[in-house]
From TrEMBL:
<feature type="domain" description="EAL">
    <location>
        <begin position="23"/>
        <end position="277"/>
    </location>
</feature>
<protein>
    <submittedName>
        <fullName>EAL domain-containing protein</fullName>
    </submittedName>
</protein>
Length: 279
């Protein structure tokens, strides 16, 4: 009503600070970013600890803004979710990552896989399973070479519905991973009902693993849990040799982090793959 309108007016005009302005600007620019080809993907290697080889890549979106420069996803993924723009953006990420991964495979890196982060909006999209099947068919990427990273909160909003979607995705043959594991509020009882393949230990636990006994215990427990549930387990945010030693000691399967490589452009990732073949 009128009252609300006036309150809004009073609230916004004097209080419109830099942050709110930036938000408005980013939201406006986000609408045209896809058409203007301003997004790109960086890829971060996932390294298998048993073989020491790169076995996968996580696709991470970047926004090359014409004035602001490189904008990190932390600054626009939330907005993209609120505005619904995450649907076209997410579809672009998925297709681009699958095309890229298939190219690496055809270049002789047969075993490389790609992981894509899925947001809530995408997950709840009616035709998610069909659209992923389409992308796999169009790009020729084997389903087992695609991994979807999902968060606990995304799956816990409606557990029964989530299990239905996850089952549909599993039937396609794609791999499913729980991202940021341990930071959400999923119940262990549900874990066995979710048809997932991988647990990804959040960076917040890995960070202090060598100095904080609690973080070390939590990490060791997640690895043990994964083993018993016959899931693969990967640690993210590995930055030091000491962290790596701990993770290896506890039996972690894979690592991802600055220690090995930050997320890099596709050409750089391909270089990493080639270097590896040369040794
Ligand atoms: P995430 O899925 O947990 O991704 C891991 C984040 O940790 C990435 O940040 C990565 O660059 C960073 N990272 C990797 N190794 C290290 C390390 O050793 N140390 C430190 N300090 N950080 C490390 P990034 O790329 O800024 O992405 C942030 C978040 O944005 C992601 O967190 C993910 O939730 C979201 N995101 C990124 N790309 C996409 C996308 O294409 N779609 C969706 N829905 N979300 C995305
Ligand atoms: Ca992720
Ligand atoms: Ca994380
Ligand atoms: Ca995440």
């Amino acid at each position: 009503g009128k009252q609300t309108g006036r309150n809004n007016f009073q609230f916004y005009t004097p209080a419109m600070n830099e942050q709110a302005l930036e938000r408005l600007r980013i939201e406006g620019d986000l609408r045209s970013a896809l058409d203007n080809n301003e997004f790109l993907l960086h890829y971060q290697p996932k390294v298998d600890l048993a073989s020491g080889r790169i076995v996968g890549s996580e696709a991470l979106i970047r926004w090359q803004h014409p004035q602001l420069g490189m904008v990190s996803p932390a600054r626009f993924i939330g907005l993209a979710e609120e505005t619904g723009l995450i649907l076209p953006i997410g579809a672009w990420v998925l297709r681009t990552a699958c095309v890229q991964c298939r190219r690496w495979q055809l270049d002789g890196h047969d075993d490389i896989s790609v992981s894509v982060n899925l947001s809530v909006g995408q997950f709840l999209q009616k035709d998610l399973v069909i659209s992923i099947a389409d992308v796999l068919e169009d790009t020729g990427l084997p389903p087992a070479s695609l991994e979807l990273e999902l968060t606990e909160s995304l799956m816990m909003t409606d557990v029964e519905h989530a299990i239905g979607i996850l089952t549909g995705l599993k039937e396609l043959g794609v791999r499913l991973s729980i991202d940021d594991f341990g930071t959400g509020y999923s119940s262990l009882a549900y874990l066995k009902r979710f048809p997932i393949d991988v647990l990804k230990i959040d960076r917040s636990f890995v960070r202090d693993i060598t100095i904080d006994a609690d973080d070390a215990a939590i990490t060791a427990s997640i690895i043990s849990l994964a083993r018993h549930l016959k899931l693969r387990v990967i640690a993210e945010g590995v930055e030091t040799d000491e962290q790596l030693d701990y993770l290896r000691h506890y039996g972690c399967d894979e690592i991802q982090g600055y220690l090995f490589s930050p997320p890099v452009p596709a050409e750089k990732f391909e270089q990493l793959l080639r270097q590896e073949r040369a040794v």
